[in-house]
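Hey, can you fold this one?
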Amino acid sequence: MSAQAALLIPTEPLFPALEKQPMPRGAEILIQALVHEGVDSIFGYPGGAVLHIYDELWRARDRITHYLVRHEQGAVHMAEGYARASGRVGVALVTSGPGATNAITGIANAYMDSTPIVVITGQVPLPLIGTDAFQEVDTVGITRPCVKHNYLVRDVRDLGAIVHEAFHLARTGRPGPVVIDIPKDVSAERASYSRLDHIRFPVVAPISRPDKRAVSRAALAILQAKRPVMYVGGGIVNSGAAEELRAFAEALQLPVTPTLMGLGGFPSAHNLSLGMLGMHGTYTANMAVSESDLLIAVGVRFDDRVTGKLATFAPHARVIHIDIDPANVGKNRAPDLSLIADAREALAALRAEVSARDHTEIVRSITQRTRWWDQLRGWQREQPLRFNGSRDQIKPQHVIRELHRLTGGEAIIATDVGQHQMWAAQFYPFKRERQWITSGGLGAMGFGVPAAIGAQLAFRDALVVAVVGDGGFQMTNQELATAIQYDLPVKVVIMNNGYLGMVRQWQEMFYERTYSEVDLSVAPDFVKLAEAYGAFARRARHPEELSEVLEAALAHDGVSVIDVVVEKEENVFPIVPAGANARDMIFQSEGV
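Sure. Predicted structure:
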């Protein structure tokens, strides 16, 4: 080539805009797909298998905010709290091996409580899978029993579609967790990606609208029932059916009893509410179910903590079971009539069916239940929720009542698991759905603090209070650092009795006071611990200190921790012993 010809070869492209851009790598495809799903927050903890993803997260930090947790269990519980408070899909990101195994508790918890989350886990490169490589575990195999679905992404070209499918599965039908396991080499490989606006998933679309004939039969049974009870659960909250439930119950003056997961789905202070049923439910709710002739079960699964001895649960009642998940219907109690449908759709259809009937039929239906309501009111007067007072020690029930007074009943309450959870359920009347966030099915200690942080992120201006025990607090209190780092001003109320309280209560009542391995008296100074993290902290030891300490902590504009030293051997009442009949409730003997 001549020197003259060489001078004609351009050293820069003549048309730079036409230069072919490199295709995005898998990590970028993941981020783009998350953005297209509306994700703006991720809770996570980095590690080697997800470094490509974290590299892209840094580049996309103007679109997605990553919240660095202090333990992977906390990441998933935060995603759960975010989802439970907002109704949106929560997202957690963890690395392979121990990162994935540390997330299992949260994943199982979300599965049991039907919480929509997507958990993204790193995995060793594809050629190393099955070689016992460093930080390799079979994440798909381990999580299979406790997810709606899980994926091992073997081809980067599938990644975008898998992300969209995962979100679809997490939020539709009965919500739940979905896991996406991404090998490190897949996150590094390149492929094209385009947003999928109209996705056809290879799954059966869930039935949301109830069968018209079933609705007509159910409406007739309800109108004819003399002792009906509406037994409602977390499905009411997940489907956003609170207004439909309230309207239907008011139209026919039906008594309503929620499960632990259903609290807030029907206002606790409503005159039609019987309070929570089950092991630590109200006398009225449990007696009403025992004597009912028709049980209208909506968004529930007849959990053993509700039914007690299943053979004697609602022995006189016909059962109408409404649930979006066909697997739940007939699993524990065979219904006389079932509606496989979204709770909101089903209740709206029932209300429309009843409204279309002759007005005199509705009046007659309500009138024939006058004696039933007289009986219900009698039970409420006979055995209200109560506890003994004390001038020397703080009663945990009083803590909850005072918390309710100071917050005007408006706070979002997240709890751990144990006695404090039951006292919060009993003595903090809830006004609305998604105000109550707790671990129901799995009963995971350590849930309360991270779940409250997730809820606080969903509603930054709301008052969010974590009510925890001293046992559960010591499992995940490191997440106070996360709350402080990202200015998420949760309030933490510790019911400190120096015991694993619920276990101790069972040992007292059913194991002849053999207090085996429940003593937690050797513990940190929670005030000093909270202050070490940078939180505001106070302690209350005596009843006269409680209101002032709570008020100061609730008024603080940042993270605050209240260590409330409560009576050590206070018990939760009523209690139905495990496997017993609801009529075998044990009560507080006397009290005010």
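Confidence is low (pLDDT under 50) at residues 1-10. Let me know if you want another pass with a different chain boundary.
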